Each structure stands twice: as structure tokens, then as C-alpha cells.
Amino acid sequence: MVQTTLYVNPTTGNDSSSGHSSSPLKTLTKALQSVTAPTTIHLAAGTYRATGGERFPLLIPSGVIVVGQEANKGKEIIIVGSGTYTSPSFGEQNITLRLNSYAQLRGVTLSNQATNGTGVWIESAQPIIANNTFTHCTREGIFVTGTGKPMILDNVFIGKDYGGTGIFLVRNAKGEVRRNLCQTTSYGIAITDGAAPLITDNKLVGNSAGISLSRQARAVLRRNLIEK
């Protein structure tokens, strides 16, 4: 199967273009509508928002990789917005982006400033979320529910004045949460219900609570650093 590559530039792109490097699309929305797996979508620096043509929530399908600048954790590639998603387990939610199994999100900054806004929603899927920055998400950066089993690797979660949770795992979620930084959030990482993820090598600084376990949570905790 041939790997397809698309390019998106919110400043110089055009959604009527081919999506080649010399003729990028304007919106991630259009790129996601155009793809057939396996595909890598490269995002240029800029802000991806509703006023620029994005339609939220975005969905990254199985086998699709969305990548920005992993080296600086997406400092110059900002996805900001919110839309309504009806979750099978939690009803209507305000989310920015959802990933199916074997989808990947790498090297972007993501923000959801809507009431009870969630950055990434994972429902019974197995995606990879790596080297991103989550900031100004009013409820949490990443929410994992159902039988979700993601790899959440090397991300930064910053609460600032919004105080949302960094990562929240519920129901029967598993997966791995490795080498993330959670700073000035309400809860850095929260695990509840019967969730049983591996939580290892994370740094949690200046949060109201570093790691919270409740109900029948069965998380495995290894080498996490918690500081005031």
C-alpha cells in the first residue's frame, strides 16, 4: 500500500489545491476529509481555527498521522477550537479533536477554551499522541474512556489560569502515559473507575494534585516525579 503525504498551510494554502508541498491545502479539516490511509499530513506553522475554515471537532482516522514540529512540541503550530461530540459513554462533549485506533498526533499545540473543553478525546481507541503541547484546555488536555488504550508520550500540559486536568483516564482505559510534563493544572493525571494504565517517568510540577487515584483505579505507577 502506497503511503500518501499531504501538506497544509493555514496562511498560504488553498483548499482547492492538490495538497502537494508546493501547493498546500489551507485547512486540516479538508486534509482529513481527503485522506485514505495510510497518510501523513504535514502542518506548516500557523494557527488552525474556525475563522480560518476549520470545522470542529476534528477526527483523525485510523492509519493517518498528523505531524507538525515535534522538536519544539508544536510551539508554532496551534490548533484552537471546539465542537460538539456525542460520546457513547458520556453524551455531548465540547472537544477539539478525536483519534481513531492507529491514528497519530505529533508536534502541535492544542487549545480548547470552551466551557468544559477537552483537547483530545479518545473513546475505545488505540492512538499515539506524542510531543504535543496542551494549553488553555478548560477541563482536560486528554480524556480517555471506554476501552481506550493510547500511547501518550512526551507531551506538555500547562494549566495556567484555566486549571484544567492534564490527562484523565476513566472506565476501563489502559495504555501508557510516559515522560509527560504536567504543570499548574488542577490534577496532573487523574485515574478513576476501573482504569488501569501504566504511568511512568512523568514530571508533575505545581499542580493542585499530581496524580489522583479513585474508585477501583488500578494504575501502575513507576518513577514519576511530583513537585510543588
Automatic annotation (TrEMBL):
Pfam families: DUF1565. Residues 1-15 have a biased composition (Polar residues). Residues 1-25 are annotated as: Disordered. InterPro entries: DUF1565, PbH1, Pectin_lyas_fold, Pectin_lyase_fold/virulence, SCF-Subunits/Alg-Epimerases. Keywords: Repeat. The keyword Repeat applies. Residues 12-215 form the DUF1565 domain. It comes from the Bacteria. This is DUF1565 domain-containing protein. It comes from Symploca sp. SIO1C4.
